Amino acid sequence: MDQRLSLVTLGVRDLVRARAFYESLGWKASTASCEQVCFFQTGSMAIALYPMDALLTDAGMRNSNPKPGGITLGINVALREGVDQEPTIVLAHGATLLQPATDTAWGGRTAYFADPDGHPWEITWAPMFPLGPEGELHLP
Which span out of 53-57, 68-72, 103-107 was modeled with the highest average pLDDT? Predict the structure, then answer.
């Protein structure tokens, strides 16, 4: 598995309020942002703000106990097939599958796993977000 982090998704109670807070700090929202999610470029990484209920549902953690701390750690992969391949690697090293690889309504593919301490990770192929030569995520 690549040793990199490309996206941190923060689960928020109120997306409008959360976006306004970060923008008040001078952060510029990406044009990829919409009513359901807000993205900010942070160097070679990005931060996403996403409603907590939707985040838990997407990760297959709706009825989990304990609940995650409100974030998922994301790895974007260059190829659709990577979403199917990466979980196999991490599961062999002690991770737990939370949500198998599935196609998304927005045209990508995602899978979720938890590390041995229960921290949720998302593996995503997002064709609208091409990766740079070092695997870095660049938002439009």
Answer: 103-107
pLDDT tens readout for residues 87-128: 898 999 989 999 999 999 999 999 999 888 788 999 999 999
Cβ proximity of 38 and 21 under 8 Å: no
CB-based contacts of 131: which residues, under 8 Å, 6+ apart? 6, 76, 77, 78, 137, 138
Structure-block tokens of residue 138: 């660049």
Q: What is residue 1's DSSP assignment?
A: -
The yes/no answer on whether domain 7-125 falls in CATH 3.40.50.1000 is no
pTM more than 0.70 = yes
Domain extents for the chain? 7-125
Enter the tokens of residue 134. Answer: 């070092």
The span from the CA of 44 to the CA of 4, in Å, is 10
Alpha helices in the chain (DSSP H): 15-24, 52-58, 82-91
Farthest-apart Cα atoms in the chain, separation = 43
